[in-house]
Amino acid sequence: MDNMGSQNGRAGGECPRLHPELVTRVKPLVVLVGPTAIGKSRIAIPVAKAMGTEILTADSTQVYRGMDIGTDKPSLADREAVPHWLIDLVNPDEPFNAGTYRRYALQVIERLHRTGKVPLIVGGTGLYIRAVIRGLWPGPPVDWSLRRALEAEAEERGLAAMYHELLRVDPQAVQRVHPHDRVKILRALEVYRQTGTPLSVAHQRHGFQDRPFTPLLLGLMMERSALYRRIEARVDVELAKGLVEETRRLLQSGYDRNLVSMKSLGYRQMAGFVLGEYSFEEAVRRLKRDTRRFAKRQMTWFRKEPDLVWIELQEHDAEEEVVERIMAHVNRFFHWLSGSEIRPLPQDDKSRSHEENAGRTEELGQGQRTSCHPVTSMAQEGGNA
Q1: What Cα–Cα distance (Å) separates residue 41 from each residue in 72, 185, 223, 270?
Q2: What pTM, to 2 d.p., does this model score?
Q3: 50: phi then psi, degrees, rounded to nearest 5
Q4: pLDDT value, residue 138
Q5: Is the pLDDT of residue 177 over 90?
Q6: Are 67 and 261 in contact, with CB atoms under 8 Å apart?
Q7: Which of 84, 91, 139, 313 is the most buried (most CB within 10 A)?
Q8: What is the mean pLDDT of residues 20-43?
């Protein structure tokens, strides 16, 4: 499936358009993040229509061709309604990382900015989003001979031993690398053996201080038990759509279960069932459990992102209401960029700053619901943003 999508018509109830000259100068982005199953992709479509723009998907699994059900890719109808980019970029056995994603994303963003559109980035892969909005330490190129040697060493010594070695040379790794994350453990050791510098030190030196864009960061969150019910429902839908059959087809096509792509949620758990290691019921139990854990890790990551405004959702919120709340923030952002006069959105008990919520289990953010108003163009205002 081509990742480009087709041009969509512009929906009614549109929100402000910025002057194209202003867009190319300040390079604005709207970024919508949140944990898996919260409904980002579904909500993003009417938001993109209201903005008159296109969607860049920030999902480390949707880049793989032929992996559709387990990655919950937007449907063909959704892609026809609004162009979606950065989907179906590589085959499951091809390497892909945050640096590759950033290169693809920058090309799409530049094209949209040239046409006066403000890109909408939507997804749950925090590193990909950070790489776009704050830059990425390039690091040394992959040394494939060293990588193969580390893989063989991990097989011989065990992943736990490799993790303990990483902690010895890079004690700060305990804060960002899970003991079972084989890819990150081996990459960190690879960088250390190549450069003699711990990866955490290299990241600190870089500091993710690049600021190539002017972003509005919005995060969707929900009470934990409600989110977990959505996760369970999504897993059930994926299974009904044929997740087991999709996993079986991928394995039969020669894609090894140890590939990074095949270790992603859904495929890893179903592969064990397909290969006869445990029952279907056990596969489902593992998938739901692992997805809940993944959602928790996502929230931990996003809570560390500065300047992110949290929007609390209720389990049965109407889509129109959620879109209206998101567009209130977009409307305010566009007015701010254009230099137009607009009163700040009042804060209620569901809207708090990042600082006010530091250390809280749940961080909330909600602007006053408003209708969209046209923004006077930069040329008419006669000023700069």
Answers
A1: 9, 31, 19, 24
A2: 0.76
A3: -65, -35
A4: 64
A5: no
A6: yes
A7: 84
A8: 96
User: In this structure, which amino acid lies at residue 351?
Assistant: S
d(CA 273, CA 247): 10
93: buried, middle or exposed (CB in 10 Å: 19+, 13-18, 0-12)?
middle
Sign of CA dihedral 331, 335, 336, 341: negative
Q: C-alpha distances in angstroms, 223 versus 38, 123, 157, 220, 321?
A: 10, 19, 42, 11, 18
Bridge partners for 221 per DSSP: 312
Write down the H helix ranges in 14-139: 20-26, 40-51, 76-81, 98-114, 126-134
Among the listed residues 81, 82, 89, the one whose alpha carbon sits nearest the alpha carbon of residue 107: 89
- Containing H/E element for 90? none
Domains of the chain: 20-136+209-222+306-381 (3.40.50.300), 144-206 (1.10.20.140)
Integer angstrom CA distances of residue 7 from 48, 78, 107: 12, 12, 17
pLDDT of residue 2: 41
Q: What percent of the chain has pLDDT over 70?
A: 81
C-alpha dist (Å) from residue 120 to 4, 23, 33, 180: 15, 13, 11, 33
Query: Tokens 């997805």 identify what position?
Result: 291
Q: How far is CA 353 from the centre of its chain?
A: 22
Amino acid at 308: L
pLDDT at 376 over 90: no
What SS3 class is residue 352?
coil
- Cα of first residue to Cα of last residue in the chain, in angstroms, is 40
Looking at the predicted structure, is the pLDDT value of residue 228 above 60? yes
Instruction: Tell me the residue type at 312.
Output: E
Contact 330, 121 (CB under 8 A): no
Three-state DSSP at 204 gives helix
* Selected residue with higher pLDDT from 7 and 163: 163
